[in-house]
Design a protein that fits this description.
Blueprint (H helix, E strand, L loop, with lengths): L1 H16 L11 H4 L6 E14 L2 E4 L5 E7 L5 E10 L2 E13 L2 E10 L4 E11 L3 E8 L2 E10 L2 E6 L2 E8 L5 E8 L2 E10 L5 E8 L5 E10 L5 E7 L5 E11 L1
Antiparallel strand pairs: 1-2, 1-3, 1-17, 3-4, 4-5, 5-6, 6-7, 7-8, 8-9, 9-10, 10-11, 11-12, 12-13, 13-14, 14-15, 15-16, 16-17
Length: 250
């Protein structure tokens, strides 16, 4: 269990450190995420939702707030994730990425779960067209991770063991990923996109269980064509959550 917790929690920092799609055309991270314009920050607040008397209603307070900060080159320099119960903060994670001459060289992540706090630091020790090698220290324990590039698929390894596999389309947009536990398949998510490259269907598979499907509806956009409001529905087309984005431009 200790090894599983270390791998799942700490290697996520390693995974977030590297914009692997840059190996397939040097696409800035903001563009890779489907954002238009010179984006500086994106803050996404997620609210619980339901239907009352045929009308979509949302909770008063968000249960999750995520913030992404980009540099002038469109590279992700900070990512924070906060979880809430009503207005009470229950968990938070902040990742900072550091670049030199336009290339990622290291990152630092701090996760606070109340009773447990985890800090990890990663540095790039090798970078080529075929792979990127990281060395990561998480709460005093060090391991080596690799991102191996094969066409539009990126495989991530922790100490030589397959941990994650991500797949992108020709435009550099992520269309699915798989997670592994000790090299064995654990769970997967795949996306169906609309003509704008936005996910409209998400299919999740956990081990040998039946697939779970989520649907997304985009209800408002800004003048740049970036969505501001998105509704998530379950398999029965019942609203599950509403995401509201605030986008700041340079």
């Amino acid at each position: 269990m200790k090894r599983l917790i270390f791998t799942i929690t700490c290697i996520l920092a390693l995974a977030s450190c590297n914009n692997s799609i840059q190996k397939h055309g040097d696409i800035p991270f903001a563009k890779f995420e489907g954002l238009n314009g010179n984006v500086a920050e994106v803050t996404t607040s997620t609210f619980g939702a339901n239907m009352r008397r045929g009308e979509l209603r949302t909770d008063e307070y968000p249960y999750m707030v995520c913030k992404k900060v980009y540099n002038k080159n469109g590279q992700l320099v900070e990512f924070s994730h906060k979880g809430f119960d009503e207005q009470e903060l229950t968990s938070s994670t902040t990742t900072n990425n550091f670049y030199k001459d336009g290339k990622l060289i290291s990152c630092r992540e701090v996760s606070d779960f109340g009773e447990k706090k985890i800090t990890s630091e990663s540095k790039v020790i090798e970078d080529s067209q075929s792979k990127t090698v990281f060395e990561e220290t998480c709460n005093g324990e060090t391991q080596k991770g690799e991102n191996v590039y094969d066409g539009l698929t990126v495989k991530r390894f922790a100490n030589g063991v397959l941990f994650q596999e991500r797949t992108y389309n020709a435009d550099g947009i992520e269309i699915g990923y798989k997670m592994y536990n000790n090299g064995e398949f654990f769970t997967s998510i795949s996306f169906e996109l609309n003509e704008k490259g936005e996910p409209i269907t998400e299919t999740s598979i956990y081990k040998d269980e039946e697939p779970t499907v989520r649907f997304y509806e985009y209800t408002s956009y800004d003048e740049k064509g970036n969505w501001l409001t998105r509704v998530e529905y379950d398999e029965m087309k019942y609203p599950h959550s509403v995401e509201v984005r605030e986008i700041k431009y340079r």
